[in-house]
Amino acid sequence: MNIIINGLSKSFKKVKALAEVNLTIAPGIHGLLGPNGAGKTTIMRILATILDADQGDISWGSSYNWKRPKAIKGKVGYLPQQFGMYKYLRVEEALKNVALLKNVPKAKEKEHVGMAMERANLSEYAKRKAGQLSGGMLRRLGVAQAILAEPSLLILDEPSAGLDPAERISFRKLIRDYNNGERIILISSHIVNDIESLCDKVSIMNLGKILVTGSIPQIQDKAKYNVKEETMSEPAFREIEKNNIVINFTPAAEGYRVRYLTNEKINGDAAKANLEDSYTFIIQKDKEL
Amino acid sequence: MRRFFRELAFDISEPGIHMMLIPVFAFIFVVMTYIVQHNLDAMGQSNLITLPLFEILIPSLGGYGSVMLMQGLLDTEGGELYFTYPRSYLYWGLLRQFRFFVLYVLLIAAVCISVAGIMNIDFVQIFHLAAAQSFAVMAVSFLGVTASKKVSIGLILLLAFIGIQITLGQEYGVFNLIYVMSGFAPSYEQLMSISLNSIIVGTFSWVVGQVWVRP
Lengths: 289, 215
Description:
- The structure holds two protein chains of two kinds.
- In chain A, helix 3 crosses helix 4.
- The mean pLDDT of chain A is 92.
- Chain A has a six-stranded mixed sheet, with helices on both faces.
- By secondary structure, chain A is an alpha/beta fold.
- The two termini of chain A are 35 Å apart.
- In chain A, strand 1 and strand 2 form a beta hairpin.
- Chain A has three domains: 124 residues, P-loop containing nucleotide triphosphate hydrolases (Rossmann fold); 68 residues, no CATH class; 68 residues, no CATH class.
- Chain A contains ten helices and 13 strands.
- Chain A is globular and about 65 Å long.
- By secondary structure, chain B is mainly alpha-helical.
- Chain B is built from eight helices and no strands.
- Chain B is globular and about 55 Å long.
- The model of chain B has no long low-confidence stretch (mean pLDDT 93).
- Chains A and B meet through strand 6 and helix 3 of A and helix 1 of B.
């Protein structure tokens, strides 16, 4: 079942956070990419039933509509951008509390809590108070509470923020394992690598609008004639920097190896665009409009 | 019923030390009452200290608990997450507050039994007084924290509500709704007046406070 978002708008006083967003989210892992203030968190908070939209409609098959959030709440797992709860509870106690709040039957509580801890790699910290967990482990507790009771819609807002590289790899594995092809997992991030390695589909947002949605190769194609990578001297690099967006540069034997976006289409020697190139290209084009 | 008690247990353990301090202070108060009663009794002054302190402390502790009960939900990073669980706004607000109030009344009863025994005063009178005062103070504190979504504002409103009544309220009766502060057990008329005021202030604060129990 797809989630269909139709004409969704939301304003906070005079700031328009979402402007008539239309989006279809299919089962699998869907990524939301965008700069700060793009509206990613707003759309996620609406889907998590925390916020009401000003306008528009969200439906999920024929049975669920966000105008009746009560039915949705039992199906959603959500990890907010900031997760600082349960400071005084032990990990296991906190998850038992979540199980209770999610109406998990008592007979299945132990199994669900154990499974969530195992998936989030928290079993050995079951007796540790949440307030004593490191940032990465606290994030894992956040993921554990989100996946507890096996929600069909998992919403993760910047899930890998603050994770070290090893934790990020184990987080990606957790999400990949959770994806069974029927569930919908929606992830927002501005860490492009996470989105690139996890998502089946990606939407790029800016200023409350969805600029483009597609599979990763489809998104990459948007900048396929506009990425160049070459080795150059430092003065040449400085010159390029003035007129182009430099995606990446690394010191090389004869100056720098520079990867940058060109304003004009390149025929012939364009570098193969990755998601980060295309994302930067699409956002830049939107700013120019 | 089992679910009710499990939820109550989590409500109390989630704020951690903040909630644990309440019975500790209540116990210290009972011990202090015993000490004061036995050391200052000959001077005939003990009730003048203990009863006003009892009137201030017991409702204040309840108000503190009411505020801390809302901290995880309204004044913690990511607390909005609670609203995604399949529970109503009414559950997160009034139902939890009511459940906590019922539990707190049991603590009040325990303190009143001890204090009444130590001071040789009528249990029913001081229990009735403390329960009524606590209801109003807890509800006003709840209103403060929900309206502002800040524990600090909830506590400031708690202090202001009590402070104005025990200072200005002693000079100008219009500012004193629920306090006796005479050092004597309340008369029947005083109890009825305080109960009525507490019900009005408490019900109003609970209902208005509930309006802001949302993300």
